[in-house]
Design a protein that fits this description.
Layout lengths: L13 H5 L8 E3 L14 E6 L3 H16 L3 E2 L8 E6 L4 H20 L4 E6 L5 H10 L5 E3 L7 H11 L3 E3 L7 E3 L10 E5 L1 E2 L10 H4 L4 E2 L2 H13 L4 E5 L17 H9 L5 E5 L8 H9 L6 E3 L7 H7 L5 H14 L4 E8 L6 H14 L4 E5 L17 H24 L5 E9 L6 E6 L4 E5 L8 E9 L4 E5 L1
Parallel strand pairs: 1-8, 2-3, 2-4, 4-5, 5-6, 6-7, 9-12, 12-13, 14-15, 15-16, 19-21
Antiparallel strand pairs: 10-11, 17-18, 17-20, 18-19, 20-21
The structure holds 5'-deoxyadenosine and iron/sulfur cluster.
The site of 5'-deoxyadenosine (5AD) has 12 residues, from strand 15.
């Protein structure tokens, strides 16, 4: 590979990424040029995916593009011609794992100098990451970000034939690109992006910088995608966005928001509709009413609260209080009786006191969550919270996490126990990891259910009577 001439690269810039322009978002249609359609013939690829469902969906797009170029997937790293690492920047430990992975892959590059190594995803959007790659990870050939996946064919061509390093990361929102090919990882459950980006700017979060301005896909495109999935035999879609409750708020010419989309998708013939992730501040009555009235939207809601202490919520820029969160939650439970609710919580946010933490514990008690992803605050360079005074010792933060997790685990168990003796509908995913004769799948309330059954049921929705409730799963018998 050629060596460093920093000016020729298109590097990320957090200051630019922070800005939100009023510019109309353009819709582009992806089309592969003839020149690119044969580059991958007799060549193989792998994609290593880290992080959230948004990244999983992006990796499916990258796989779709690579296969359109002629590449085929391989399970062997050694025999790969292209390896792309699709990265996550949400917390420091996610990044550390990826740096380790990049170091490990250097050995393959030594064995096969023609191997193209690509870095994609949220980490690529960070200035400090790209600087470090330029200085210390010379074996990485391509760095591209979350806004320009559709240009992958060009980047591969340049790295492969011109033997030049490609660093191209756009810091501003970019377009919405339609007509992108996908190789889906699952045969009956699919991710469907409904919007990109985030405009909330919670003070701890890097996502608004790595994923850009909030922009919604047109309802026509989303509905057409779901209808097409139904035709292909898909049973479940999960609608994706950093804040799906803000869907449509960027439409200038129409008043069509998330509740409207749920109602329309309910009519498409898809058996199950799920979505993630939500912001309490944008969750409106229209959405709750749509959930109440639809037959295919699942009775499950992931509603991140982050903290139960009002001073902390304010410093996080969350736009709600403990009390208003509980009000929204009660309203949701009224509209969809029996709904299962899970959440995200951060402990050890800068300045969080013992009393603040107890407020979080109190909120968890009142909210009756049936599960949560819990985290210790991680400082992300470039976010406002990275500059906040943080005097709480790491040990104290970890203790808070343990105490919280104990309470959350009790919530998982209680949430499972309420189904004892009930018959639930399970979409069968496959066989259990531990026993081939046991099937595993998820109920409408998103509970993992195991039961004895024949493999032919995989992909079907089956009635299962629940006989045992454990913390992490339910056991049952098919009817
Ligand atoms: N530190 C810890 N957790 C974070 N999250 C987002 N940013 C951070 C951070 N800097 C958590 C939030 C969010 C989830 C996806 O990740 O809880 O809801
Ligand atoms: Fe991050 Fe907040 Fe946006 Fe979620 S809503 S992606 S936590 S800024």
């Amino acid at each position: 590979m050629n060596n460093i001439d920093l000016d020729k690269y298109f590097k990320p810039d957090l200051n630019k990424a922070r800005k939100r322009s009023k510019k109309e978002i353009e819709e582009l249609k992806f089309q592969l040029s003839d020149a690119h359609s044969k580059i991958g013939i007799n060549k193989t690829y792998q994609i290593h995916t880290y992080g959230c469902q948004g990244n999983e969906a992006d990796s499916e797009t990258m796989a779709g593009i690579l296969e359109l170029m002629g590449f085929t997937h391989t399970d062997s790293e050694e025999n790969s011609d292209v390896i792309i690492i699709n990265t996550c920047a949400i917390r420091e430990n996610a990044e550390n794992r990826i740096w380790g992975e990049l170091g490990r892959l250097k050995a393959y590059k030594k064995q096969n100098p023609n191997l193209i190594l690509g870095l994609a995803g949220c980490m690529s959007q960070e200035e400090n990451v790209v600087d470090r790659v330029l200085k210390k990870y010379q074996h990485v050939d391509i760095v591209f970000g979350t806004h320009n996946i559709y240009k992958l064919p060009e980047y591969i061509e340049t790295a492969m034939f011109a033997k030049e390093r490609v660093i191209e990361v756009y810091s501003q929102e970019g377009e919405i690109v339609e007509n992108l090919p996908k190789v889906r990882n699952h045969q009956f459950k699919a991710w469907v992006n409904i919007m990109f980006g985030c405009d909330e700017f919670c003070t701890y979060c890097i996502v608004p910088y790595t994923r850009g301005k909030e922009r919604s896909r047109s309802k026509e495109e989303v509905i057409a995608e779901v209808k097409d999935l139904v035709k292909q035999g898909y049973k479940e879609v999960t609608l994706l966005g950093q804040n799906v409750n803000a869907y449509g708020k960027d439409f200038k010419d129409q008043n069509y928001t998330f509740g409207d989309l749920l109602r329309d998708l309910d009519q498409t013939g898809i058996a199950r509709i799920r979505f993630t992730t939500s912001h309490p501040h944008d969750l409106d009555l229209k959405t709750m009413e749509a959930m109440r009235d639809s037959s295919h939207v699942m009775p499950y809601f992931h509603l991140p609260v982050q903290s139960g202490a009002n001073p902390v919520l304010k410093k996080m820029n969350r736009h709600y209080t403990k009390e208003s969160y509980l009000n929204v939650l009660n309203e949701l439970k009224k509209h969809v009786p029996g709904i299962s609710v899970t959440t995200d919580i951060i402990v050890g946010f800068p300045g969080e006191t013992e009393a603040d933490f107890l407020e979080t514990m109190d909120l968890v008690e009142k909210a009756d969550f049936e599960g949560a992803f819990t985290f210790v605050f991680s400082k992300r360079e470039g976010t406002p919270a990275a500059t906040f005074e943080d005097l709480t010792p790491e040990e104290t933060k970890k203790e808070r996490l343990y105490i919280l997790n104990d309470r959350i685990n009790a919530g998982y168990l209680k949430g499972n126990q309420r189904f004892l003796g009930e018959t639930v509908k399970v979409l069968v995913d496959g066989v259990s990891k531990y026993d081939e004769s046991v099937l595993a799948g998820y109920s409408e309330h998103n509970k993992l259910v195991n039961f004895k059954g024949d493999k032919s049921l995989i992909g079907q929705i089956v009635d299962v009577k629940i006989t045992q409730a454990k913390t992490w799963f339910l056991m049952g018998e098919s009817l």
